[in-house]
């Protein structure tokens, strides 16, 4: 039985489609671990504190903060603090626009709730994605949550990163 060139091309075409479908499924599985679970009543709040800037995700006008980003103005370094959910872990993962960074963490169990902190450059891929889109996903010790900024909050996100990258 002779195999025609068109049959070979068709077989290669369909095999390629199958591989593309498999790759798409693998990407979906990787992304599925970051499911947006924004907390009702929480928001993003920008604070200019003179020599430093903060971006807090929490309840308005309270100390009920789930995630805090802060920087010394012009430092290009963002310190990310998260409530220590699920116990101790050595890393925290940030994701935005399909890009992730895994950051080494340190525990701070000073006054109040235990916090885990990590540092990243302000131009790290997920932080750049957060700046562009207003969306970031955080994973730590088996716990994940997502933050999605509304249009007004996105202005605060931009102000925060501008402060971190430029002295005033």
Secondary structure blueprint with pairings:
Layout: H1 5-32, E1 43-49, E2 52-58, E3 65-72, E4 77-83, E5 91-96, E6 99-104, E7 106-108, E8 115-121, H2 125-133, E9 135-140, E10 143-148, H3 151-165
Antiparallel strand pairs: 1-2, 2-3, 3-4, 4-8, 5-6, 5-9, 7-8, 9-10
Helix pairs in contact: 2-3
Overview of this structure, please?
With 168 residues, the chain is of the alpha+beta class. The chain folds into two domains: 32 residues; 123 residues, Immunoglobulin-like, CATH 2.60.40. The chain is 31% helix and 38% strand. The protein has three helices and ten strands; from the N terminus they run αββββββββαββα.
Give a quick precis of the structure.
The protein is 31% helix and 38% strand. It has 168 residues and is of the alpha+beta class. Strand 5 and strand 6 form a beta hairpin.
Keywords, separated by commas or semicolons:
10 strands, Immunoglobulin-like, alpha+beta, 4-stranded antiparallel sheet, 6-stranded antiparallel sheet, 3 helices, single chain, 168 residues, 2 domains
Main beta sheet: strand number and arrangement?
6 strands, antiparallel
Shape: globular
Structural class: alpha+beta
Number of strand segments:
10
Average pLDDT confidence is 79
């Amino acid at each position: 039985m002779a195999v025609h060139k068109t049959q070979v091309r068709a077989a290669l075409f369909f095999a390629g489609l199958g591989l593309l479908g498999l790759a798409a499924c693998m990407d979906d599985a990787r992304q599925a671990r970051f499911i947006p679970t924004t907390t009702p009543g929480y928001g993003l709040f920008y604070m200019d504190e003179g020599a430093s800037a903060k971006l807090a995700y929490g309840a308005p006008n309270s100390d009920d903060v789930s995630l805090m980003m802060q920087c010394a103005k012009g430092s290009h370094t963002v310190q990310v603090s998260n409530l220590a959910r699920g116990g101790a872990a050595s890393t925290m993962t940030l994701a935005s626009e399909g890009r992730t960074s895994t950051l080494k963490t340190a525990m701070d169990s000073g006054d109040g709730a235990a916090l885990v902190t990590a540092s990243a450059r302000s131009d790290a891929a997920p932080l750049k994605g957060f700046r562009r889109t207003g969306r970031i996903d955080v994973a730590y010790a088996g716990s994940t949550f997502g933050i999605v900024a509304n249009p007004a909050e996105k202005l605060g996100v931009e102000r925060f990163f501008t402060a971190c990258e430029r002295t005033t």
